[in-house]
């Protein structure tokens, strides 16, 4: 059955982004019921949301749209999750104090489903101590605060308070249903392909897209972890809601970034396809093809193994490695887990995984070897996080 999202919209210029949000949520298979404050209707017409959601849009407590005249009870009973985007400072303040003076705030008070809010306001309003006090109250009440982002604002100022983009909100909304098995944990993930320069325009890289690591970053975030991500070359969007992200393109740069961040971590998940070798005779200038010149030789030298370096440190975080194999997957993976000294290793056949949307992996740890079915990288990541959380809990 379709999951039902009750989407509240407050008055704010960011309401235009919510049109796209409704479209994305519908596309992902949700039923979306929109409730607007009167102020919201000054920014975007209810007709727009009605057309996008395919459902009647409710504006106020007594507009009579609910059959029994109790829209606040009916809608909140049916919803699987409630999201307010944009959430104004005024509505957040009212919710924090249990006020119910319009349909939106009444629905919040009468709901039994989880609530997430995406604040949108001017930077001064965001920083206002009263607003910050209200946000702390909302968090105490298990209300998820999504964003805001930092950036240029409609008023011309720059700072915190921009509503997250529709695609980011659609991604973060799913977290509401995920059990917080990594709550309070800090995790560092590497993903993507490294790039080893030959000259200023050429290099050695591989076909890793970064999707598996990004899926793991999302899954760890959804499970409540504070996630840092170090990524090489990727062909996927950066996941929203991560605590820290940094691009490090060469193996040396990735190692340096990991070593800088690793001390604070409980978990290290090494998904990056790191080049085993870098170019020893890298040219500062672009190599020229001159008539009569012999074919240039590229000399290679070994890169450090980032995962093995981290795993061998005293007080190392819980390490998860990947094994990309093209043959003898299980046999090579067992050997790799021992060699790198990691408690959990995810083995896959490169022909089934690299650059693709799905994956089929085997999880190897001290207790068991689990063959997972071919599934989306998001589902694979969820299964890896579930096993990781079990093993962490046993430590
Ligand atoms: N890895 C790493 N640093 C390297 C090479 C690999 O951190 N220089 C990590 C990868 O992120 C992965 C694991 O080690 O988690 C295994 O990577 P893989 O490419 O499968 O194996 P290699 O160690 O490179 O061994 P081989 O190429 O012989 O299979």
Automatic annotation (TrEMBL):
<dbReference type="GO" id="GO:0004633">
    <property type="term" value="F:phosphopantothenoylcysteine decarboxylase activity"/>
</dbReference>
<comment type="pathway">
    <text>Cofactor biosynthesis; coenzyme A biosynthesis; CoA from (R)-pantothenate: step 2/5.</text>
</comment>
<dbReference type="InterPro" id="IPR003382">
    <property type="entry name" value="Flavoprotein"/>
</dbReference>
<comment type="function">
    <text>Catalyzes two steps in the biosynthesis of coenzyme A. In the first step cysteine is conjugated to 4'-phosphopantothenate to form 4-phosphopantothenoylcysteine, in the latter compound is decarboxylated to form 4'-phosphopantotheine.</text>
</comment>
<comment type="similarity">
    <text>In the C-terminal section; belongs to the PPC synthetase family.</text>
</comment>
<keyword id="KW-0288">FMN</keyword>
<comment type="similarity">
    <text>In the N-terminal section; belongs to the HFCD (homo-oligomeric flavin containing Cys decarboxylase) superfamily.</text>
</comment>
<dbReference type="GO" id="GO:0015937">
    <property type="term" value="P:coenzyme A biosynthetic process"/>
</dbReference>
<keyword id="KW-0479">Metal-binding</keyword>
<dbReference type="GO" id="GO:0004632">
    <property type="term" value="F:phosphopantothenate--cysteine ligase activity"/>
</dbReference>
<dbReference type="GO" id="GO:0010181">
    <property type="term" value="F:FMN binding"/>
</dbReference>
<keyword id="KW-0511">Multifunctional enzyme</keyword>
<dbReference type="GO" id="GO:0015941">
    <property type="term" value="P:pantothenate catabolic process"/>
</dbReference>
<feature type="domain" description="Flavoprotein">
    <location>
        <begin position="3"/>
        <end position="172"/>
    </location>
</feature>
<keyword id="KW-0436">Ligase</keyword>
<feature type="active site" description="Proton donor">
    <location>
        <position position="155"/>
    </location>
</feature>
<keyword id="KW-0460">Magnesium</keyword>
<keyword id="KW-0456">Lyase</keyword>
<dbReference type="GO" id="GO:0046872">
    <property type="term" value="F:metal ion binding"/>
</dbReference>
<keyword id="KW-0210">Decarboxylase</keyword>
<comment type="pathway">
    <text>Cofactor biosynthesis; coenzyme A biosynthesis; CoA from (R)-pantothenate: step 3/5.</text>
</comment>
<dbReference type="GO" id="GO:0071513">
    <property type="term" value="C:phosphopantothenoylcysteine decarboxylase complex"/>
</dbReference>
<feature type="binding site">
    <location>
        <position position="336"/>
    </location>
    <ligand>
        <name>CTP</name>
    </ligand>
</feature>
<feature type="region of interest" description="Phosphopantothenate--cysteine ligase">
    <location>
        <begin position="187"/>
        <end position="395"/>
    </location>
</feature>
<protein>
    <recommendedName>
        <fullName>Coenzyme A biosynthesis bifunctional protein CoaBC</fullName>
        <ecNumber>4.1.1.36</ecNumber>
        <ecNumber>6.3.2.5</ecNumber>
    </recommendedName>
</protein>
<feature type="binding site">
    <location>
        <position position="276"/>
    </location>
    <ligand>
        <name>CTP</name>
    </ligand>
</feature>
<dbReference type="InterPro" id="IPR036551">
    <property type="entry name" value="Flavin_trans-like"/>
</dbReference>
<dbReference type="InterPro" id="IPR007085">
    <property type="entry name" value="DNA/pantothenate-metab_flavo_C"/>
</dbReference>
<dbReference type="Pfam" id="PF04127">
    <property type="entry name" value="DFP"/>
</dbReference>
<feature type="domain" description="DNA/pantothenate metabolism flavoprotein C-terminal">
    <location>
        <begin position="182"/>
        <end position="390"/>
    </location>
</feature>
<dbReference type="Pfam" id="PF02441">
    <property type="entry name" value="Flavoprotein"/>
</dbReference>
<keyword id="KW-0285">Flavoprotein</keyword>
<feature type="binding site">
    <location>
        <position position="340"/>
    </location>
    <ligand>
        <name>CTP</name>
    </ligand>
</feature>
<feature type="binding site">
    <location>
        <position position="322"/>
    </location>
    <ligand>
        <name>CTP</name>
    </ligand>
</feature>
<dbReference type="InterPro" id="IPR005252">
    <property type="entry name" value="CoaBC"/>
</dbReference>
<comment type="function">
    <text>Catalyzes two sequential steps in the biosynthesis of coenzyme A. In the first step cysteine is conjugated to 4'-phosphopantothenate to form 4-phosphopantothenoylcysteine. In the second step the latter compound is decarboxylated to form 4'-phosphopantotheine.</text>
</comment>
<dbReference type="InterPro" id="IPR035929">
    <property type="entry name" value="CoaB-like_sf"/>
</dbReference>
<feature type="region of interest" description="Phosphopantothenoylcysteine decarboxylase">
    <location>
        <begin position="1"/>
        <end position="186"/>
    </location>
</feature>
<feature type="binding site">
    <location>
        <position position="286"/>
    </location>
    <ligand>
        <name>CTP</name>
    </ligand>
</feature>
